[in-house]
User: What shape does this take?
Amino acid sequence: MRVVALISGGKDSCYNMMQCAAAGHHIVALANLRPAENTGRTDELDSYMYQTVGHHAIDLYADALDLPLYRGFIKGTSINTGRVYTACQEDEVEDLYHLMKLVKDKEGVEGVSVGAILSDYQRVRVEDVCRRLNLQPLAYLWRQNQEILLKEMISSNIQAIIIKVAAFGLDPDKHLGKTLDQMVPHLLELSEKYGVHVCGEGGEYETFTLDCPLFKKKIVVDSAEVIVHSADAFAPVAYLHFSKLHLENKGESSGMFMVKSCSCEVTCNGDDDIFPSSEEDEPQENIPVIWKSLNHNSLDFTQTFGSSRKSLSGYQWFSGITARCLPSQGRNAQEAAREAFSSLRANMTSEGLKPKDIILVHLYMKSMKDFNVINSVYVTEFDLCPPARVCVETLLPDGVLFCIDCLAHKYDIAADDVLCDEKLVMHVQSISHWAPANIGPYSQSIKVGDVLYSAGQIALVPCTMQLVSGGIRTEAIVSLRHVERVLQAMSHSTALHHVITASCYVTDSKHIPIAHSLWQKKLGECKKVEDSETYRDATGLWGLLTVVVISRLPRDAAVEWHVVAVIDDPLQRKHFAMKMLSEGFQIECETVESSSASCASISIRLSLISPSASQLDLDGPLHDLVHMFRQAVEKLSEDCRASPLSFRAFFKDDIFDAETLQIGLQECLEKYLGKKAPALILVPVVDLPGKEVIHVTCWLS
Assistant: This one.
């Protein structure tokens, strides 16, 4: 990819250039923004977006790297400072847009090298510029461990000096002009004592790179003076103003460099003990079941639109949005998709909601071959902050293109004019070593109140966006690692033990025990509890896992993880379980309620335990299953504000008649819950664990 490197002169932009080169990209130009000459501030600008200290020396970079340098002036100011950026002509971000457009027109670049590590503010704005210009941002340093990253930079021969200090513990007289190598011990000490960002991500210090392995010539500082910006007794702010610099030629080996090997891929060597043996991988033998006829009028189960009632905190679930593609009627896939979304909008409008209020979408497709066509319509339905999404192929009836169900939330201004349950969105589009960039119109995660709704994750290698090699075990590890990283990025202290409900989609029955084993291992690695008895009981509080076998996943992945997590104290969650026998079936129910009582998850499994050659009656087990569901809802604590919103029934397609199942469950839900009935969602699957024939997951919020 032809890449332009955004450079500030600092260590981060230089090291990201090295990462781009190591990834095989071709850096063809440099770009930099500097203070406008009429601002009266020629050294440093108070900018949210740009490092400008040391900008006088940037012209030397063109000769040092032997690349064309494009420079522009920062004419705007920081006007649109929200979490989501929309174009504003007076904003300083637009100066970057015009500069990038110029470089793209002149150099034909396809990507942009960005040295962002932790600043969502900068990342969001660079990504917005790249989106408008159809450029791919490359941010290989994004969310890397700063201590490890700083040491990597030094070991990779980044020769940078401190040119600005602005933090307690950094002394202009002692530290300005020092090299990174000289500063590491002191920066680590400040980080330990005061929480200083080791890489300066909190604005504690700025650097200027004098040499790196990409340079053909190195920059030498002949003279500089210290400019004190603020003589604060505790945290003085000062910077170096270069008075004179020159370039020096480097040795013949200057073009060779090494960067740390990519950490995106993992191997499973040594992890065989966490996975079941091949004997355990064997799928259960299907049991033939003959159902008594219930004499219901048959209908296509995908034709029934439904929705839950709106919860007290503004949540509502919509189900049964279906696109039907019938070539015989002259309607193509795009038209069918548009009609389905039109139906969704109409139903949401009747409830006072809009598509922008959707926070989570489940997209069940008849065939992944239609993915691109459906996506082309899907992307037009949402703004810059699309909902999180789960996308799988499953066994839908002929003529059905896809089925969608979604969770929406309307957050209103509270009486004291403070936003209640404000929606926070993570929508990272940059290529990095952190987690996969969005490959479609969805967000990695959305936080509402104390709940994190994450998108489904498959095992893409973040820096290449290709499926990891190594088979199911490697895929399971990598995709679950993506889940962990997204959760932690949304809230620093959040980990897998904060998950309250999890779904794992696999494409082979042999993969079911692998998913279960990995999940248990990862939960075992979570925060240990000193009291072993408490720890044993706590494992039931850390997420109800559902594993189902479907026919296909995006990119032909073998596994996809989807979780919902709560920022609470998992050890204070309420957990209870019930089980009963019902006409040859066993029904097991588990419920987990968050410690904040803001939400809960219910899991119900219907297993066939007494195979019989005689016909089985479906009515009794369904009534018992839904009755147990009502009992679970009623057992929630008195202070729990959550309402049942969704009733997702994964069922074995080769055992059940879907239409009969849909009618039976709907009648039972209406009988036992009345107007409180959740939205019913039926998902036909290839297989379920063990002797399960139905696995129901319910979300209450």
